[in-house]
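Running co-folding for NAP.
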Amino acid sequence: MNASLPTVAVIGGTGDLGSGLAWRWARAGYPVIVGSRVADRAAIAAAELKARTGKAVRGMENAAAATAADISVLTVPYANHQPTLETIKAALAGKILVDATVPLMPPKVSTVQLPPGGSVAVAAQAFLGQSVRVVSALQTVAAHKLQQDIIIQSDVLVAGDDAAAREAVIVLVAALGLKGWHAGVLANSVVAEAMTSVLIAINRRYKIDGAGLCITGEPTA
Ligand SMILES: NC(=O)c1ccc[n+]([C@@H]2O[C@H](COP(=O)([O-])OP(=O)(O)OC[C@H]3O[C@@H](n4cnc5c(N)ncnc54)[C@H](OP(=O)(O)O)[C@@H]3O)[C@@H](O)[C@H]2O)c1
């Protein structure tokens, strides 16, 4: 663990996406807290990560995890997005929230179905208020790939209204072994939120095990 790195809480970190992220951040030396609705479930998941990484991963109920963290990463199903935000809102004041939520509406997960207002992340920002810097990221990376010790060919669109917060998340994304791109203001999150259904459709049509997104072109500045 590196004391100069921010503490990251993965809200819903017992799940598929959250556990993959928590493992990769712990392995990279970040202080990681696994969050869950149930403290015991968080503790069990944290113990598993500790055994896998040899790092001191902690497990806490979601609100306690967000309170103890510098940056929280929200990885819960869309159906539970708003109720989860309500439980962690107070703990997030003055901090960064990374929202990875995709507004999938089963069973039609390969059809883009955006929520009222167009974007989950924008709705989160409106609910949390301006003291929380919401950054949208990671919607297009497959959880089962994050959980494996492999190189993942997939870039990450990082959208948010605060450039410094976006940059902090791009650093976090790099620690996962992925390339993050400044993708503009939070309203642009709608593209990543919609892209997941497009990738699912491509996976099905071409039998790809987790299609990814790659930005081409070489930066000159
Ligand atoms: N899976 C992927 O490949 C992937 C990739 C990119 C983005 N995403 C997005 O990331 C989010 C999480 O996806 P996931 O596949 O990791 O989900 P998941 O494994 O089904 O759920 C994640 C966690 O959320 C909590 N949760 C589940 N159902 C809930 C409910 N009905 N009410 C309250 N809490 C509930 C659970 O934690 P506790 O029971 O411990 O509280 C669970 O471990 C989703 O928005 C998804 O669209 C997923």
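Result summary
Residues 8-206 form a domain with the Rossmann fold fold (CATH 3.40.50.720).
The CA atoms of residues 20 and 146 lie 5 Å apart.
Job closed.
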